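Notebook, student rotation project (T.W.).
Task set for the rotation: take a protein with a known small-molecule partner, predict the structure of the complex, and write up what can be learned from the model alone. Partner molecule chosen: adenosine-5'-triphosphate. Sequence and SMILES entered below by T.W., checked by me.
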Amino acid sequence: MADAQQQPSVLIVDDDANFASAAADFARAHGFQTSIAHSLEESRRAMGRGMSDLTMLDVTLPDGTAFDLLAELDARQHSRIALMTGETSLETARRAVGLPVLDYLLKPLCPQQFESLLSQASARALAQIAGARPDGIVGDCDAMRQLTVDLDRVAPARVSVLITGESGTGKELVARAVHDRSRRRGAFVAVNCGAIAPDLLASHLFGHERGSFTGAQQRHVGYFEQANRGTLFLDEITEMPPALQVYLLRVLETGEVTRVGGSENIPVDVRIVAATNRDPIQSIEQGKLREDLYYRLADFVIALPPLRARGTDVVLLANVFVERLNAEHGQVKQLAPDAERMLVRHGWPGNIRELRSVVQRAYLLSDGPLVRIPVLGRRALPLHQDDSSIVFHVGMSYADVEREMLLKTLTKVDGDKTEAARILGVSVRTIHNQLARLAVAGDDAIPHV
Ligand SMILES: Nc1ncnc2c1ncn2[C@@H]1O[C@H](COP(=O)(O)OP(=O)(O)OP(=O)(O)O)[C@@H](O)[C@H]1O
Ligand SMILES: [Mg+2]
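Predicted structure of the complex:
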């Protein structure tokens, strides 16, 4: 495991002391913490102190072979081990083939291959650290580092926060983090102002008394009261009807709500976090957002940059998603070596949500230990995709429609082919056949296995 200074670690096991120390020097120069063992016995002792992010294991050692050691370890550990051998003997090659180890290297080592092995191991180690943050926010670029600083400063204060950013940039995730770090004891209540019929929004937000309108058979406590002493997240704030924006502003000024059909003024202590994927200033000009409300909501503005402006965060995020899927599925897959190139090349119009779904899809479709990121962008991904809907365009073929249905359903059921077959009303064999056909056709979204 990487240590507190975020330095990844490598264990080099080789009875050739010169080779081992040269390899260790190389790894140290690439930012690794190194340890060396010259026999199986020594390597067992080193592993007993904790598994390194990468173990480079010579096949032939004085007290046995690498295969003896591999037999003692489980698959999760195999995936962190690269075998090395100086002999190209048929027997070694035969035994190594089919072992689920990370890589198989011939000595003398080729520096490029060594480097790419190290960079993969360090990316994985970083992802483990980045993915362990309790708020789940992953990012290492300047903007995301600044966000962490801002969150610590702003969350505990009683200021309103407006979060802007394209769809899928993490606005809701950040809104939750604001609440979690605020130490406000009440609930976090999220309301999507664009998803509730305009004429019902008032009663949802502020509650209503029994009989206040047709269909109001019960008294209803609104979101404001539910979020008392907590945080109310008003998502897609520009979709709120202007008349309601006026009323909202009054509630924020007075700190009291009146239920629809009621007369009592009920005091509420609510922290507001609002979000929009539009430019708020432009929305004001277009009359979609009242200027006075904007100033009340935007004590502090967090502008989340699109994924394409976050540099190599895309690679870090992809590694974190793979690690999360590993934990969930009890597997030990990792990104294929060319993944980085594929990931930074794409524009990610759907941002982190799109990335997550691409990684998840590639993960489910990879049968081997490597998760291959497909060539993206040639087939336009729907802009507002989510896990439960599919956008079909006129001009798509039945084959495309079928492909989307299949892949989306598989994603939804976490790759459970039996469950997907049940939902789609076909046999499991049909699912397998379709996947195989897509793979054979070299489909963009299907990793080549
Ligand atoms: N920095 C991040 N690190 C890890 N996961 C992230 C990050 N940003 C977003 N995500 C994940 O991406 C997905 C989309 O994020 P979220 O729903 O917060 O986006 P949004 O900006 O609210 O999108 P929309 O405008 O479409 O509602 C979620 O699964 C979220 O957990
Ligand atoms: Mg959202």
